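Please check both lines for our workbook:

___
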Amino acid sequence: MSSFYSEIELREMGFKYIGKNVKISRKTSIYGVSNISIDDNTRIDDFALLSGHIKMGKHVHIAAYAALFAGEAGIEIEDFCGISARCIVYAASDDYSGQALTNPTIPDYYRKVTNETVVFRKHALIGAGCTVLPGVIIDEGASFGAMSLIVKNAKPWTMYVGVPAKELRPRDKKLLQLEYRLLEEEKNEQ
C-alpha cells in the first residue's frame, strides 16, 4: 500500500474540489474535508494538519508537520507555493491580552477571536518553523527564512527573516522562466 492516498480514495473523501496528481499522505489529519479545495500536482506530507476553509492552487507543497488552521476566514494558497516543515498558519487566533478567556473549551461570548483570511500569492515560500498570524497577505514571490514570525503583509519578490520578520533583500525572479518552461512541458504532455 502506498504512503499516499490513491486518486480514487481522494475522490471518495468528499473534498470540495480535488485536482489531478494530488498526493496526500495517509498520515495527514484533515478536518472539514468538504471545505477544502486542492488543485493539480499538489503534495501534502506526513503529519500535516488541515482544518477549515482552505483553497490550494497547482504545484503547492505542504511539508511534514505543517498545520493550517483556516477556520471560517480561510487560507488561500496560490500556485507554486511552499509551506515548509513545522510551519503553522493561523486564520483564527484567540486574544492573548487578558481581556478575554482563551481556548475552544470556553463559550464564545467569553472569548475574543480574530478571524481574518491568510493569503499566499503565487510563488510565496515560508521556511521551516515559520508562524503566520491571521490576516497576513504574503504577496507574489515573497519568501521567509526559517523560524520567522509573520505578522504583517509581505511585499512582492522580497525576502524576509526574523522574529518578527523583517525585510532582507529582493528575491530573484528567474523562477518565472522555469515556471513557463514547466507549464509548456505539462501542456505538451496532455
